[in-house]
Write a structure and sequence with these properties.
The complex is a heterodimer of chains A (about 475) and B (about 110). Chain A has helices spanning about 1-20, 35-70, 75-100, 125-150, 155-180, 190, 200-220, 240-255, 270-295, 300-315, 320-345, 355-370, 380-410, 415-420, 425-430, 455-460. Helices cover about 65% and strands about 0% of the residues of chain A. Chain A is an all-alpha fold. Mean pLDDT of chain A is about 90; it is low at about 440-469. Chain A has 16 helices and no strands. Chain A has a single domain, classed as Ammonium transporter AmtB like domains (Ammonium transporter fold). The radius of gyration of chain A is 26 Å and the shape is globular. Chain B is about 20% helix and about 35% strand. Chain B has helices spanning about 15-20, 70-80; strands at about 1-10, 30-35, 40-45, 50-55, 55-65, 90-95. Chain B has a 4-stranded antiparallel sheet, with helices on one face. In chain B, strand 3 and strand 4 form a beta hairpin. Chain B is elongated. The mean pLDDT of chain B is about 90. Classes of the chains: A mainly alpha (about 475), B alpha+beta (about 110). Chains A and B meet through helix 9, helix 10 and helix 11 of A and strand 4 of B.
């Protein structure tokens, strides 16, 4: 009996309490606006920085792709290049690049404020820091694309100088034309309505065309072409590593594209789906084309196909439907196979296919963003896209070409033939990446055999290719 | 004493080792080698370019046996390593002048 009374008492108390609460006005979205805005702001910071972390991880992807597609004797050099283009690039982008790209401008050609992150004040709005973090990993992506095309023959000091210029100058100038208004700037190209949501042109084509300039100034690797001009493949030393790199890049792209909203809202769902579908279609089509052309589903082309699809959808990921994303990715997957073969044929030696994946498919993606625009397309929209693609090439390629020529004439861009044959790991960095493994001489010019103490003379015996006919 | 040097297909190594163990061969030295004979090499594709690989990976087994074991060993290897296709490998037999066990200093037949 006692317990029954107790329960009744509790019920009565609860009822009075709820009646009392109902007397207060119901909170609405309007009365709670301040709190809701605060939560939204925090969500934006969180999403932007999580996405920045995903994009940062793409550095690991690029490093693995490049190392896997090249010979073991250059692996340390490739790790060092990928480490330093991010590290040096971060400092250069902090000091100069960010100001050029996002600073206030009167001309629309480059920004002139915000150097050394001067937009940040201790009690001011910290958004500039979150935004800078997201932008610096983009700048580093453009910078690191070039590394792959110049692999296995570039002098390390020359590469360091290049890193400063691309992150501090070449990338930010074009970036300011297309993206300046995302912060304090306002570029001439975005004024025309240029669509490049996450950077098919701004990031990937810039990287790809700079890579083309670098590969041309350097010339092909020793042993890549026979005396009568026939292509002789130089095998990568670790295809599983290259494949891991592609999976890492694919993951990173889920930050690269959806993160470019820098806003935590519902639009990221479609961008995610588009990104994934384009990559999948790119891999499928590259595999099918390679199967038809070479008789076997070739792994290198299929991996590049996935990347081609990702680069292709980057411009239009927020502006096209998922079915258009499949078409964009599929076309990129076909283009990349023929593009890789084309550049091999005209003797541009690009060990990882960076020019084709990032330069050519970046241009295709930018054009496709206009053609498949979800809000309708017109000759004017496509015209602006073409203008953007052309402007990117006309700025990046000559600027990068000039820079590489200058580096070549001053401190030197390419290592000596002896160093190249011996491998950059030993000659540039004084080590070898896999000391406990016998290094295969499977095709092409022989790799290092034995330990570093065997020294330079060992290349003399190995200058003859291990395979003939 | 004879040395029997056989070059076989790599995936046949375990079968050959087991068969030799069964007929009483107590030790062997194995190395990974590359080469070509009548099989020649084969064509492979790398990023769209076809190339010829002349040196095909093989496994070389070195055995030192008592002379009266030679026929049995050779017929066992020939039997087990045979797939019927070109590239199954070769067997070479050659004389051995001496053999010594480093730990005990035993020599000749006792050392193998």
């Amino acid at each position: 009996m006692k317990s029954k009374a107790f329960i009744l008492l509790i019920l009565a108390t609860l009822m009075t309490a709820s009646v009392a609460m109902a007397a207060d006005p119901e909170p609405t979205a309007i009365t709670n606006k301040e709190a809701i805005d605060l939560v939204q702001t925090h969500a934006n910071y969180l999403w932007t920085l999580v996405a920045a972390a995903l994009v940062f991880f793409m550095q690991a992807g690029f490093a693995m792709v490049e190392a896997g597609f090249t010979r073991a004797k250059n692996s340390i050099n490739i790790m060092m290049k990928n480490l330093m283009d991010f590290s040096i690039g971060s400092i250069a982008f902090w000091a100069i690049g960010f100001g050029i790209m996002f600073g206030a401008t009167s001309s629309g050609w480059f920004g002139t404020t915000g150097f050394f992150l001067s937009d940040f004040t201790p009690d001011g709005d910290p958004w500039v820091l979150a935004f800078w973090m997201f932008q610096v990993v983009f700048a580093a992506t453009a910078a690191t694309i070039v590394s792959g095309a110049m692999a296995e023959r570039t002098k390390f000091t020359g590469y360091i100088i290049y890193s400063i210029f691309v992150s501090g100058l070449i990338y930010p100038v074009f970036g300011s034309w297309a993206w300046g208004s995302l912060f304090n700037g306002s570029g001439w190209l975005e004024g025309f309505g240029f669509i490049d949501f996450a950077g098919s042109t701004v990031v990937h084509s810039v990287g790809g065309w700079a890579a083309l300039a670098g590969a041309i100034v350097l010339g092909p690797r020793l042993g890549k072409y026979t005396k009568d001009g026939k292509i002789k493949p130089i095998m990568g030393h670790n295809i599983p590593l290259a494949a891991l790199g592609v999976f890492i890049l694919w993951l990173g792209w889920f930050g690269f594209n959806p993160g470019s909203t820098t806003t935590a809202d519902t639009s990221i769902a479609m961008i995610f789906v588009n990104t994934n579908l384009a990559a999948a279609a790119g891999a499928c089509l590259a595999m099918i084309v390679s199967w038809m052309k070479f008789g076997k589903p070739e792994v290198g082309m299929s991996l590049n196909g996935a990347l081609a699809g990702l680069v292709g959808i980057t411009a239009g990921c927020a502006n096209v439907s998922p079915s258009s994303a499949i078409i964009i990715g599929a076309v990129a997957g076909v283009i990349v196979v023929f593009s890789v073969m084309f550049f091999e044929k005209i003797k541009v030696d690009d060990p990882v296919g960076a020019v084709s994946v990032h330069g050519v498919c970046g241009a295709w993606g930018t054009l496709a963003a206009g053609i498949f625009n979800i809000g309708g397309t017109s000759a004017a929209i496509i015209g602006v896209q073409i203008l953007g693609v052309a402007a990117c090439f006309l700025w990046t390629f000559p600027a990068a070409f000039l820079m590489f020529k200058l580096i070549d004439k001053t401190i030197g861009l390419r290592v000596s033939p002896e160093e190249e044959l011996e491998g950059l790991d030993y000659t540039e960095h004084g080590g070898i990446a896999y000391p406990d493994f016998g290094v295969s001489t499977h095709g092409g010019i022989s790799s290092i055999t034995g330990t570093p103490s065997s020294g330079l003379p060992s290349y003399a015996a190995s200058t003859k290719p291990a395979t003939q006919s | 004493m004879k040395k029997i040097e056989s070059i076989i297909k790599p995936f046949k190594l375990d079968d050959v080792k087991d068969a030799l163990n069964r007929i009483g061969v107590a030790g062997m030295t194995v190395s990974e080698v590359k080469g070509f004979g009548r099989q020649r090499g084969h064509k492979e594709i790398y990023r769209g370019a076809e190339y010829q690989t002349d040196f095909v990976p093989k496994v070389k087994i070195d055995l030192i046996v008592d002379s009266d074991m030679v026929d049995k060993v050779v017929s066992t290897i020939t039997d087990v390593a045979n797939t019927g296709s070109v590239g199954d490998g070769k067997i070479f037999v050659m004389p051995i002048e001496g053999a010594y066990r480093i730990r005990t200093g035993e020599s000749g037949k006792d050392a193998i």
